[in-house]
Structures are given as C-alpha cells and as structure tokens.
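ugh ok fine here u go
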Amino acid sequence: MLYLPDPRDNNIGHFVWIKNLSRLVSLQLNKHGHKKYICNRCLHYLSSSERLQVHTIDCGEMNDCAILLPSEDDKWLSFCNHNRKERLPFVVYADLECILQKTTSEEGEDHKSHAYQHHRVFSTAY
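structure:
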C-alpha cells in the first residue's frame, strides 16, 4: 500500500495498492527503465529473475530479523534543527498490517460518537 496525499484537496489522501513494485521503482533505479526484480523481504533489487531466486534463498536464511515496535510511552518522534536537514537519494517502503478488534462501549456514556474498533498491529514490513 502507498499513501498519496492530494495537495488540491487539503492534502487529504488515499491508499493505493501496489500491484507491481518493480514497475513503480524501475525508473528511479535506472535511466533506461529496464525491469528490476525486487526481493519482497529486504527490497534488494536484481537484474534477472534467476539472480532473484538465488538471492531469495540466501535472504531467507541470513536475514532473520525481528521488528521492535516502540512502547506506548515512547511512540512519538520529535525533531529539532529542521534547518539542518539534507535531502538524501533514497526511498523507504513500509507496510503495516492490522487486525480490527471490536471495542466495548462504556454503559451510561451519552456521546454522539465513540470508537467501535481498535487497530492492533500484527505485521510490519520494510
């Protein structure tokens, strides 16, 4: 999924399903637009499907990684010295999968709106 904000509509955006990641990023990776084969696990790109198959085997054995999410107390990022920022030529693609859990409303609440679902994260990919 890719989130695209719309500057014409107060930056209200929508999510777009990426069917073919290679088609999306090939022009960013080379000037000729040749197809790149991208590993879904580590996002490393290769020039042929044979090399991707060999890489996929190695990547599955070597890149055993655990994703650590921040705690509830330490979940906000803050930045300072914004004037020192520097543009870097890289892109990060991330995916977050959630389970929707129903919430119970408190009895006696007299609100016009309430949360009826909670998003529980169960999978993250970069």
